[in-house]
Amino acid sequence: MEDNVIVRLDNCSIAFDGETVLNNLSLDIHDEEFVTLLGPSGCGKTTTLRFIGGFLTPDSGRVLFDGKDVTHVPPYKREVNTVFQRYALFPHLNVFENIAFGLRLKKVPENEIKELVGEMIELVNLRGFESRKIGAMSGGQQQRVAIARALVNKPRILLLDEPLGALDLKLRKDMQVELKRIQQQLDITFVYVTHDQEEALTMSDTVVVMNDGIIQQIGTPEDIYNEPRNAFVADFIGESNIIEGIMHEDYLVQFAGEKFKCVDKGFEKDEFVDVVVRPEDIQIVTPNKGDLWGVVKSVVFKGVHFEMLIEQAGYTWKVHSTQSAEPGAQVGLKIGPDEIHIMKRSEA
Ligand SMILES: Nc1ncnc2c1ncn2[C@@H]1O[C@H](COP(=O)(O)OP(=O)(O)OP(=O)(O)O)[C@@H](O)[C@H]1O
Ligand SMILES: [Mg+2]
After folding, report:
1. Does residue 201 form part of some domain?
2. Residues lining ligand 2 (ion), CB within 5 A?
3. Domain around 318
């Protein structure tokens, strides 16, 4: 196996009460990689994380760590720590003692504890808070303590299960940047779970998109965004227009009643396909200049752009544009070949 693979999930499956929750899941995680498991609620993200942490054993399949089979190795014997959404800090202990807790259990000498905890407090920007009680810390500060506590014994992998879920949007954004910095500063592997696509795209080296216990796509944020492999990924990653089409021949697709040049090839002649067009990739033009024409149904200002719904031959297109149009107006829609993404038909 590639030598920088630190964790390999090899065909892992599990069922609860007869319901398959993860189905032959295989995934390689590389040393110092920031990997995000992304998918809707219930798709199996936490379950996957628990395999890696050792809190759960798959019914079949193996978990490898540095190439060694650790499927049945308990959590405390793995070089892995976890940060949970509910931070599970000790309310009766102060910040220093919360971070020091695991070291004290391991009977680490006092001067070493001082040094290690001090380092962590520095890392998460909590200097001056050492003797504060947890109850007197804000949500964001508590999250920092939880991260420091999970990192203090220098795990090789940190698992983070929706660690920012309880924070408000502004704080979430700040902590995203912080977490990325911490990961890079420590050169360790992060496996991060979220159902927030923007968070996944911002922070990760690699995004693993999951649905219904099955990996839909693994790739860089750019890959996932620009080249979604199926309609599920396209829809989950960005708001997309997904419409049925027919691929007549290489570089020629038909949808919404019109033929379009596109950049895709390699389909069967007249194969039925899913066509994905992102709302920001559709241009609003005067009706006679468009590839399609429709009627503006609604216009909502979204801060940076206007979101318009445009009805065209029974289909409603979502369009994002910095230019507004009047509801009821007739408009042309222009879609360039590069903006048309053709996908194999999927059940999703
Ligand atoms: N111990 C269990 N017993 C029974 N069912 C379980 C158990 N653990 C998880 N499940 C089920 O497995 C599925 C996947 O759960 P999991 O917690 O991995 O989802 P998730 O992707 O983390 O979702 P969320 O985003 O809501 O946290 C769910 O349908 C859940 O109800
Ligand atoms: Mg979960």
Report:
1. yes
2. 46
3. 245-344
pTM over 0.90: no
The set of residues, in sequence order, having a beta carbon less than 8 Å from that of 321 and lying 6+ positions away, is 280, 282, 283, 284, 305, 306, 308
Same domain, 13 and 149: yes
Mean pLDDT of the chain: 93
Q: Which residues contact 131 (CB under 8 A, 6 or more apart)?
A: 94, 95, 96
Q: Do 114 and 168 lie in a common domain?
A: yes
CATH of the domain at 296: 2.40.50.140
Report how far residue 62's alpha carbon sits from residue 69's, in angstroms, rounded to the nearest whole number.
7
304 in a domain, yes or no? yes
C-alpha 219 to ligand 2 mean position (Å) = 21
86 lines ligand 1 (CB under 6 A): no
Choose which residue among 43, 55, 86, 216 to substitute to test ligand 1 binding: the one with the highest number of ligand atoms within 8 A of its C-beta: 43
When pLDDT is cut at 50, 70 and 90, the band that residue 344 belongs to is confident
Instruction: For residues 32 and 155, state if they share a domain.
Output: yes
Whether 227 and 254 map to the same domain: the answer is no
Indicate whether 68 and 107 sit together in one domain. yes
pLDDT at 248 over 50: yes
pLDDT confidence band for 348 (50 / 70 / 90)? very low
Residues 112 and 20 in one domain: yes
The pLDDT of residue 288 is above 70: yes
Rounded CA-CA distance 217/223 in Å is 9
Q: State the pLDDT at residue 45.
A: 96
What are the Cα distances from residue 98, in Å, to 13, 245, 294? 36, 57, 60
Q: Is the CB of 46 under 6 A from ligand 1?
A: yes
- Stretch 235-242: mean pLDDT, rounded? 87
